[in-house]
Amino acid sequence: MAGWLDDRDLPIETGFEGEPAPGLEGLPRMDLAPVEAQLPSLVDQAVRGPVVLTRNGTESFVLLPLDIYRRLWAAAPRPPVIEAEPGSGKRRRR
Fold first, then answer.
1. What is the pTM of this model?
2. CA-to-CA distance for 93 and 50, rounded, in angstroms?
3. In which residue ranges of the chain is pLDDT below 50?
4. How many CB atoms within 10 Å of residue 21?
5. Is 73 helix (H, G, I), strand (E, B) or coil?
6. Residue 48 and residue 42: Cα distance in Å, rounded?
């Protein structure tokens, strides 16, 4: 298939160690070993960059390596932080 590389199977390494990526807290985890046993080329390709998976002819999922996900998370816009002094104690009543 075009685009698939025929490199030997090397261990998967990421530039980060330890804690999970921000924004992934509480999400279910899946052991990748069964997928890698059945489709090693898919996992190998996903380590190199994003892979779009289709289901019933429609784009359904994107596999991202954690280092790319971290960059995406860091670049995402955040809601503005509004700094304000405590009010004078008067509140409007309805």
1. 0.53
2. 53
3. 1-5, 11-12
4. 17
5. helix
6. 10
Locate tokens 């807290």: which residue?
25
User: 6, exposed or middle or buried, with CB in 10 Å at 0-12, 13-18, 19+?
Assistant: exposed
SS3 call for 69: helix
The Cα–Cα gap between 51 and 15 comes to 19
Burial per residue of 60-84, b for 16 or more beta-carbon CB atoms within 10 angstroms, e otherwise:
eeebebeebbbeeeeeeeeeeeeee
The rounded distance, in Å, linking the Cα atoms of 69 and 13 is: 15
d(CA 39, CA 35): 6
Strand ranges (DSSP E) for 28-83? 51-55, 58-63
Which pLDDT score, from 0 to 100, does residue 37 have?
Answer: 92
